[in-house]
Amino acid sequence: MKCSQLLIILFFTLFFFKGNAQEFKLGKVSVEELQEKNHPTDSTAVAAILFEKGVVDFEYSQNDGFVMITEVTTRIKIYKKEGYDWANKAVRYYIGSNAKETVFISDAITYNLINGKIEKTKLKSDGEFDEKVNKYWGRKKITMPNVKVGSVVEFKYRMRSSRFSELTEWSFQSSIPVNFSEFKTFIPEYFVYNPNLKGFISPKITTEKHNKIISYSYRPEAEPGESTTSSSSQEKLEFSETRTAYLAENLPAMKEEAYVNNIANYSTSISHELSVVRFPNQPYKTLSTDWASVTKTIYDYDDFGPELNKTGYFEEDLKLVIAGLNTPEEKITAILNYVKTTVKWNDYYGYSCNDGVKKAYKDKTGNVAEINLMLTAMLRHIGLTANPVLVSTRSNGIALFPNRTAFNYVIAAVEMANGLVLLDASDRFSTPNVLPLRALNWVGRLIRKDGTSIEVDLMPKASSNDVVVMNYEIDANGKVSGDLKRQRTDYNAMIFREKVVDVKEDIYLEKLENENNKIEINEYSRTSEKDLKAPIVEMFSYSGSNFSEIIAGSIYINPMLFFAVEQNPFKQENREYPIDYGFPFIDRYSIAIKIPAGYKVETIPTPLLLNMQDNLGSFKFMINASGNLIQLVIAHQINTPIITPEYYPMLKEFYQKMIEKQNEKIVLIKV
Amino acid sequence: MIFKYVSFLFLFFTSFIFAQKIEYNSLNISDSLKENANAVVRLNQIDIAIASQRSMSITTKRVVSVLNEKGLSAIDAIESYDKRTNIRNIEATVYDILGKEIKKIKRKDFKDQSSGEGGTLFSDNRYLYLDYTPVQYPFTVVFDSEIETSTTAFIPKWYPSSDYFVSVEKSILNVKYPDNLGFKKMEFNFSNSKIDKTIDTTTQLSYTATNILAQKQEDYSPVYNSIFPNVMMGLELFHLEGVDGNAKTWKEFGQWYSDKILSGTTDLPDETKMKVKALVGDEKDPIKKAKLIYNFVQQKVRYISIQVGIGGWKPMLATDVDRLGYGDCKALTNYTKALLDVVNVPSYYTILYGDRKKLSIQSDFVSMQGNHVILSIPNGNNYTWLECTSQDDPFGYQGTFTDDREVLVIKPDGGEIVRTKVYEDNGNTQISKGTYTLSANGDFSGKITIASEGSQYSQKAVIENVQPTEKEAHYKEYWDNINNLKINKISFSNDKDKIRLTENVEINAANYGNFLANKLIFVVNAFNQTNANIKRIRNRKNPLEIQRGFLDEDEITITLPSGFSTEFLPDNYELNSKFGEYKTEVVKRDASNLVYKRTLFVKKGLYSNKEYDEYRLFIEQISKNDNAKIILTQNQ
């Protein structure tokens, strides 16, 4: 899979907008807006953002230096009762140890049309709540008064922050239509931000430079012993400012679809990350401009590179782990298992260590970074070329632009003669090159010892198998009984292990029986549940009377029994986003059926071979009857983890034909 | 020499004891307690000390051995606090499988979180919880906490065992109370468990429960509080959010509630009074007046959950609701009541449990109960019940959230227990009338009208207001038996007077009929397959409860393709059992037209665990017959 090509197709299908001279200001709600019954282009919309404007500006004072001000003004129209939640707003702000933020909400007014007249209701303090969410975050919430179907609500919030390593991410799109969305940044020359724009729609961008003068009062600090009466002086700070405006209009609502990785990947938004700080008379400080400097910056963080290079905590233990092992493959597996079993993941993501690798090793628990950097260090220690790979999880979205915050996760990679081996010790069922699904998100960034980096394709290339061999016989009442062996490899094995871990056998079987048309299961066994290298195998015998029908003396039976897929997973008519399988796979069934004495085969389904366009997948259905035996070989495979939406009609039809074939019946008649 | 040996042994022994707590060793848990268990509660000791009407402390010591990841929630190391409840102590210690201490968690290491998440907009309630990452299984957590509160109106219920897949080695409750506060208790579901009442005097109550085995969760079980043993406790003289209370009977309780909690909350601005008087006009009938008011409220307000201070119990002032246009269930109910007062329609604040399962106020135990509030209006000998948090419910409709249960009606002169409206089995109807045509290549096209009433109304009414994509998803799910389903047209008519929702849907689907050589086979019942999937359960323990009955009737006209002759038509079928009745027939009208009729009636009821399998087979029979097929043969 060439992910980068796919990215270009997906994210640069651009639509351009004509700029509109119309000006939007709070307080100027029109009768027309209040009268509007439905959104003009989306009659199903429960509400719409009539406009939303954000401005990021910098203030300067002697005490605080530069402070970033983000001001957002919003006007929302409520069309339906289901849209009432849009009259509530919550703004999160940082209250951690340093760099506290403050939020001030104002101009919050609800407008209604009463007998042709505009009625205003202001938000009072009883509708505003300030909440300490946890140690790090506070949250201001408002709930607008007097909201009805047809109301228009407006509010403004202003956030002061000195955390300016990044600007507030601006989402142009929402789950409701957005008529007008504008984001402006006023950036002093001392800072350079990298804008990262993603989504299907491209806003109109205008940039201009201004000279700005800030005056402030300066009071020199008193020398020891000196009286503090020295007078203040008015000072001026003169600098140039870059003003950029991003404008998008008439953005459709984002709607959830099935089998989408993370819908936020496709929504139009812009984020900014600080890349250069250049104060006068000080050297340039480069933070990130391209992938190379991003990775270098991350590598230089105290809680990344230095943690990776720490030694002296595991060496003695490691000797025992690899004692007697010869090949690098054996050692990799042994070390991966060692880290998995000795240090448990505490459910925290991150590419930077929290308590550090040494403490994590001692406490036997750590975050993703601690676990996988420790793993990398151990692999390096035994002489392998091991490096960390920065990853953005599925929930975090795809890392599209050089950006420190694009990543939120790290795994380990070993360079071997036949390619990279990817490892993640935070998941107990993950094996070499079988990463937990959360980390399977297109591409990652591998960082070498010298801080240089390369792109790594994370998506699995090898097929995960699900192989079923089953034999059964049918009696004259149509009841079936037989046995089967089912073997799962790679991702199928990982997913299955996760599903059954800690589930009592009794409960698992009850579920298996119920999910498979109430079969009765006996002699159940499972092998290689703990041995992750090997495929996991289930074996059991079964009987069931819900698979056949006797109509007018003939037996109708579906040969695949409970393995036939009954419904097309692709029910929608159209598809806008890629179909994400996560990994390529092959499902294969070998079935042998013995028919009851006194019966013969009247009809069997015809064989079928379906190949998807561009070799994306295939379906094979082979059947043969001789004497009292019917044999089938059925295989369904998908060769790529992600299929782009232009293939959707083909895919839907493919599934339909496959499912029809899977549900065709064998007819047995009396001799 | 001998001396030395002894002291050495002694030393060895003491150090061993210091390092390991034998009782926290997870190796010696008996097999019976491990069966079906993800965690074993080794000890759960709760000491409740009521010092006075305004002071109660609860000390908890919980020792839980967690056997695997699914058992983590059994640790339950969490305490909530607010202005009137103070956590005096909270700490935990973790031991490994041998009982060796591996970690101590102090108060400052507990996470502090606001409870205003999910549906609640704001709450000043907070909680401290333990966030521990296990490094191995099994392990044991010893959790100690002590809370102190001035609220004595709620004494937590005692559940010796309260969760599925968790067994209990020992659970102890000790309660101490002054003899002059009217302490009382009531025991439930004690019959099948080993619970000893060790002390029961005028100032003290103690229970010990031992060896309660882990239970599996089973579908169609009655509500949890009628399965698990539990003890309710309360005081006749109690305190709530700065207000003293005194009640022996529901009448007294209601009186207190009315005087201390509700009084003074129903004032309204004159402008609003004028407005509703004008709205009602000359209408004399109280129910018709109430309907006009209810409609007014539905247009004006929206539901928002806010739990602040006494707002947790006292409704927001009606004037505030009037100005702000929102409130929680208490606020909106109280506001509706205030408006009804203006037009002289009596109505009562009513406390109950809102739940899809029919959960009643324990009518023979006078105490603070319930989690929801609705409004009741006297209507002849009955009441009309209003759900004031809904902007869509028809007037007087209760759906499945507040129907058929005991509730507390607060009247100015006292409280009264009343049962809410019962929706009879044969009133919960779904009547479908439709047609479909099968083409010569097996394609399907049809249309249908589905009218739903009673408790089935509430399931359908929600569909009307969802987004088109969700509507489509609903029908594709409802008719998941039809592959390739395409929905051509959907329309609704919602008759709120008759409380009937009618759906009109037109659909088509390619290849509904399957060809086998020259035979065309299709399922006759296209529109209403029994979807109740009743699981096979090995050794069912709980009784079977069918909460609500229903009646479905279908009449479908089927047009067959020409050029085929009918090889096989399903026989007429009838099934009667104690659970209900089912009947289908296929009538041949002419060469190409059939009429399919189907009736399914299921009764509500409570049955023994033994009868569960009978019920499963009853539904399975129906499901099988719902799959009956017609075979057509192509004429040569």
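qc> Chain B touches chain A through 60 residues (CB under 8 Å).
qc> done
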